[in-house]
């Protein structure tokens, strides 16, 4: 298998010529927070698949829901007015769980990139429907990650994802992220939040508010390196967008359904977005599924009149896939019954506290930060200058490799080591991750 792996399979975000030093990991089994690899090693899954296996691996309830739905019907479309029971039930479930956000409509898709693309397109159509078709531009944050489709890539905040695929959508502007560790403004969280809000307001004014459709951001930036904004940032963001009537799209692909310690990431900041992008945790990776949730303000625009302009000319063959929706219903029951947002907050605090000493003790750990079960170790080549470690020198990968030898899978992403274990994780497994990374860092310094 190892030799065959890259023969015909193109791997995302990886050079096709994987080096012998970093052979691809091949996983054969999973249960709860553990996975087993091809060599029979049983490891704590500190990555949770790809921050998505929130209910843990191999849950009987989810498998049963999938099989029962397949026994009824594996696929029929939820398209042009037809539907299946699971998609109807899941749309109601998501609206019930996001009642606080006044979410009243959901459109399903197959993954996070689809959920973002749907959000951007529906935001544009919303402005058409309410008679302001000039509002077409999108604002977002540097270090933001919004998937790989052309729209999502255009609002992506990291040039290295975009460069090879340009030209992208015009009229997209990335503003500095409110990142206390590295920013051109201030280390004081309040001053920093205000400085970034000022940049956003200036951009809206310079473009003309009548041209701006929406602002898209992650409540906690994930792939960009687990960047937690100051607590006042999101409320201030909502206020400035309200001032100019710009829509707020919360990309909750990672944070949705509990990962950052609240049911939705924006809720953790006390903010109600207009549109939410959901994927990953909705179906915990058992099946691919994405969802775009609209609040009443946005959704109601489609109900003004029965006209051609109100037709949603967007949707996928897999929209509302019955097996995906059935699996998601089973996953969301677990999220609620086992209070996974609460457990993420509690276990995340333990993980953060356990790892924080590494920023003092290890020569190449600059900062340990996180919220809930999103934790990042910022690896640096110079602690005082806070210079990010060059991913090309292989050191971040080496630390991840050492941690793996100590029993935990962690994710090297650029210069940051990311931790995002299943939300069902308990203290013993948190401690294994902390112990593995501590030993890995000590081994590097020795
Ligand atoms: N948005 C965010 C915030 C993400 O983290 C991701 C994936 N990591 C996506 C969108 C894209 O999701 P997918 O990979 O399922 O297309």
UniProtKB/TrEMBL annotation:
GO terms for molecular function: pyridoxal phosphate binding; transaminase activity. Pfam families: Aminotran_3. Its cofactor is pyridoxal 5'-phosphate. It comes from the Bacteria. Keywords: Aminotransferase, Pyridoxal phosphate, Transferase. InterPro entries: Aminotrans_3, Aminotrans_3_PPA_site, PyrdxlP-dep_Trfase, PyrdxlP-dep_Trfase_major, PyrdxlP-dep_Trfase_small. Belongs to the class-III pyridoxal-phosphate-dependent aminotransferase family. This is Aminotransferase, class III. It comes from Sagittula stellata (strain ATCC 700073 / DSM 11524 / E-37). The lineage of its organism: Bacteria, Pseudomonadati, Pseudomonadota, Alphaproteobacteria, Rhodobacterales.
């Amino acid at each position: 298998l190892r030799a065959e792996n890259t023969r015909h399979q193109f791997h995302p975000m990886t050079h096709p010529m994987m080096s012998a030093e970093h052979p691809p990991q091949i996983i054969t089994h999973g249960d709860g927070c553990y996975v087993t690899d091809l060599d029979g090693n049983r490891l704590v899954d500190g990555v949770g698949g790809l921050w998505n296996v929130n209910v843990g691996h191999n849950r009987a309830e989810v498998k049963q829901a999938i099989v029962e739905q397949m026994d009824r019907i594996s696929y029929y479309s939820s398209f042009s007015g037809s539907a299946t029971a699971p998609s109807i039930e899941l749309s109601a479930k998501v609206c019930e769980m996001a009642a606080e956000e006044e979410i009243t409509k959901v459109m399903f898709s197959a993954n996070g990139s689809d959920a973002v693309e749907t959000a951007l397109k529906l935001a544009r159509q919303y402005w058409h429907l309410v008679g302001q078709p000039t509002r077409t531009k999108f604002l977002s944050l540097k270090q933001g990650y919004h998937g790989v489709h052309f729209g999502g890539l255009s609002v992506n905040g990291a040039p290295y994802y975009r460069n090879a695929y340009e030209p992208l959508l015009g009229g997209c502007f990335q503003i500095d992220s409110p990142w206390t560790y590295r920013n051109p403004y201030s280390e004081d969280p309040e001053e920093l939040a205000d400085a970034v809000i000022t940049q956003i307001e200036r951009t809206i004014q310079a473009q003309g508010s009548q041209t701006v459709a929406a602002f898209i951001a992650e409540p906690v930036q994930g792939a960009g390196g687990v960047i937690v904004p100051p607590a006042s940032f999101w409320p201030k963001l909502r206020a400035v967008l309200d001032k100019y009537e710009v829509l707020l799209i919360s990309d909750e692909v990672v944070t949705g359904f509990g990962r950052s310690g609240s049911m939705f990431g924006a809720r953790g900041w006390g903010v109600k977005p207009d549109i939410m992008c959901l994927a990953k945790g909705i179906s915990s990776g058992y099946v691919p599924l994405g969802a775009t949730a609209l609040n009443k303000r946005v959704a109601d625009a489609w109900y003004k009149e029965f006209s051609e302009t109100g037709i949603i000319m967007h949707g996928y063959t897999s929209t509302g896939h019955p097996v995906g929706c059935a699996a998601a219903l089973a996953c969301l029951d677990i999220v609620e019954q086992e209070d996974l947002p609460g457990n993420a907050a509690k276990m995340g605090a333990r993980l953060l506290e356990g790892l924080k000493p590494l920023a003092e003790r290890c020569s190449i750990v600059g900062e340990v930060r996180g919220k809930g079960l999103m934790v990042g170790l910022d690896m640096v080549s110079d602690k005082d200058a806070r210079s990010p470690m060059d991913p090309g020198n292989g050191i971040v990968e080496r630390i991840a490799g050492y941690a793996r030898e100590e029993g935990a899978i962690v994710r090297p992403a650029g210069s940051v080591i990311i931790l995002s274990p299943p939300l069902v994780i308990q203290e013993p497994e948190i401690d294994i991750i902390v112990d593995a990374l501590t030993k890995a860092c000590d081994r590097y310094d020795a």
